[in-house]
Write a structure and sequence with these properties.
The chain has about 160 residues and is an alpha+beta fold. The protein has a single domain (about 5-135), classed as Nuclear Transport Factor 2, Chain: A. About 20% of the residues lie in helices and about 45% in strands. The protein has helices at about 5-25, 30-35, 55-60, and strands at about 35-45, 50-55, 70-85, 85-100, 105-120, 120-135. It has a 6-stranded mixed beta sheet with strand order 2-1-6-5-4-3.
Length: about 160
């Protein structure tokens, strides 16, 4: 059975994760930065421009998002595992991006986070992103999410995907 402290921590961590999306969509990078530890490590992809060592570097890196006219980041399937003053979390993200010319792009991915208790709240100490898919003009090189291979001998059902 889950204890009350774990439920409270899980709710607080979920709020941190959703606030990240809210602040990013508003391009409030100062508030977004406050969700991370000063020495946070963030890896959105293998390109050095998608890696940030520290809160200040993260805010500087995310300034690249000004290239989009509007964005809408949505989290789902948030899972949190609390162990004392540390926690890990996984959440699915669906992010829509509109360019200045009106074209748009979407990404479907996973955030993998490590968080630490800080005072009476939680901060993200490490974030990694994996991509499950994209459409439109989204070309950022984000590593693919893990997916099991089909069983040996499996064949797709006929006529299902018309």
């Amino acid at each position: 059975m889950t204890d009350t402290r774990t439920l409270i921590d899980t709710a607080a961590i979920t709020a941190v994760l959703t606030n990240y999306c809210r602040f990013l969509d508003r391009m409030d990078l100062t508030s977004l930065g406050r969700l991370f530890t000063p020495d946070a490590k963030v890896i959105y992809g293998p390109d050095p421009r998608l890696v940030a060592d520290g809160r200040d570097a993260l805010m500087a890196s995310l300034a690249r998002m000004w290239r989009w006219k509007r964005t809408a980041h949505h989290l789902a399937n948030v899972r949190v595992w609390v162990e004392g003053d540390t926690a890990t979390a996984e959440s699915a993200v669906h992010a829509w991006h509109e360019a200045a010319d009106g074209s748009d792009a979407e990404i479907f991915g996973l955030y993998h986070d490590r968080l630490v208790r800080a005072g009476d709240g939680w901060l993200i100490a490490e974030r990694r992103m994996e991509m499950q898919g994209s459409r439109g003009g989204f070309r950022v090189p984000i590593p693919p999410a893990h997916r099991e291979a089909p069983p040996l001998g499996w064949t797709p059902p006929e006529g299902l995907d018309r």
